[in-house]
Model the fold of this input.
Amino acid sequence: MRTLITGGSVLSMDPAVGDFASGDVLIENGIITRVAAHIDAPDAEVIDATERIVMPGLIDNHRHTWQTALRGIGADWTFPDYRAAIHATLRPRYRPEDVYLGNLLGRLEALHCGVTTMLDWFHCAEGPEHADAAVAGLRDAPGRSIFCYGANYGHQGSVEAEIRRVHRELDDERGPVTMAFGLRGAEDTSIETVAAELKLAAELGLRTSVHIASDGTARPVDDLRRHGLLEASTTFVHANGIADDELRMLADAGSSISISPDVELKMGFGWPMTGRALAAGLRPTLSVDDTPAAAATSSPPCAPPTLSSEAWTAPYVPATCWNSSPSTRRPPVGWRSAPAASPRARTPISSCCARTTSPCSRPPTQRPASSPQATPASSTRSWSRAARSSATGRCWVSTCRH
Ligand SMILES: [Zn+2]
Done:
């Protein structure tokens, strides 16, 4: 079977092939066999790509897909806000069916944005049924996905049995959904736990990913190096605040980093590490991370055909793969001090939202008497929340100050 994609702006990403303002791509039996300014293939099925971009699919190597339905509720949150609202309040109420829908819709949304391969960094591990629902959501959508599974935030016990169980389900490298191991990291557990999880990952042949950061006082990468725990198969997410010599350690180990610039800038993680990572010899990748921090708007009418809300409203374009690198600094405040979720009966997420919102007494369009720029940070935040509530007349979560 031959397919000819014709008339598009071709970005081959291959210097030997080059780019074409208007070009053709010939696919034969599922393999690209030729890229040129013009290709004659009279027997091929023709796809007219005029005024469209033709390029390899994007790869997002770090996205918490289960949060898709929460898009935009925390576009002005700091990381402590996010942790309290999402992980201490909403996540414990997620049912497996909520996870399924989040992953299904999130995977479809990613594909709509041009992301053909996506790593789902799953940290809504409330139970085995949640993991199964997450995998089902990925499987029910087109595109290639990597289910990055590990312990839930705050869990200190072993997850070996659960990792082995899910691995048996996903032990097919040719399948549309494969598996990686999401590590907790030494800062949330212990160096012994990191060693045990890396050992398990090596036994099962799983790549690993871990969130990491520093406020400038800790040296988490050096700690791992001294314990012999820097692996080429690990991607360090964020890495803001990591010292230059630690970035070189990652490069020497062949590790990779994933930068999420939109979330890192909004949540106060620090400057994205792209430049410093490149200088250290790393080849950074980019990722979306969490969608609650993303803008809530849908695609603008003028959005390019290969981009929609996420890629359009933020400067993150998931790139190269899983084989490059960077990371994030752990936020200086709140990372550890966010309140733990109290045990409670699991209730539908819709009920939860009803309880965690409250009527906004200030008219949504009313601006504070003084300019936001001239007011203390707390007043500015209250105003921004009031403005953001204009669509519903409600303010989200208990952090609303009016
Ligand atoms: Zn993340």
